[in-house]
Amino acid sequence: MSYLIETERLYLRRLTESDTTDLFELDSNPKVHKHLGNNPVKSLEESQNQIKNVLKQYEEFGIGRLAIINKETKEFIGWSGIKFERELRTEFDYYDLGYRLKEIYWGHGYATEAAIGSLEYGFNELRLNEINACADVNHVVSNKILKKIGFIPDGNFTFEGSLINWYFLKNKA
To answer: What is the pLDDT of residues 96-112, one digit of tens each?
Structure first.
């Protein structure tokens, strides 16, 4: 298995169809989806379709969300990474940093670590000029992480009835 990103405690690699059960475990948890429209997945088929969409992003754009793997235990923690986004903010295309972890792994710094690794990859390997991110205004932890890793708040927008904070970060290279 080849890893695109390695951090102190994590590997980030491309998602594969073998991640379906883990992705289902992640996205079927209502607590994980509290600030994501409260619409957890209900079937393995939905998770399979999510993976197919990510695989298509890899093909089309050479980038997409990556599985986060604990180096020590080899367990699937969640996903992070950058994807080319054109659906959330339909008025323009952009590169979006995101992360989502299984509840059991919350509060251990994994999201921050994976996000930093993803940013470094995006700026240093992909040579992106700017990376954006967003978080529901009520998602205190996610907003805190984005600010902690250097994202600059740049207003907000509404998506499916929720107010979302918008962030950007420019490549300093």
So the answer is: 999 999 999 999 999 99
- Three-class DSSP category at 85: strand
Q: Please state the φ and ψ torsions of residue 148, each to the nearest 5 degrees.
A: -60, -35
Q: What angle do CA 66, 17, 53 make, to 5 degrees?
A: 65
Q: What is the DSSP letter of 26?
A: H
Q: Which of 1, 41, 42 is CA-nearest to residue 18?
A: 1
Residue type, 13: R
Q: State the Cα–Cα distance between residues 54 and 84, nearest whole angstrom.
A: 11
Tell me the pTM: 0.92
Strands (E) in the chain, as ranges, are 5-6, 10-14, 66-70, 76-85, 94-101, 130-136, 152-159, 162-170
d(CA 70, CA 50): 22
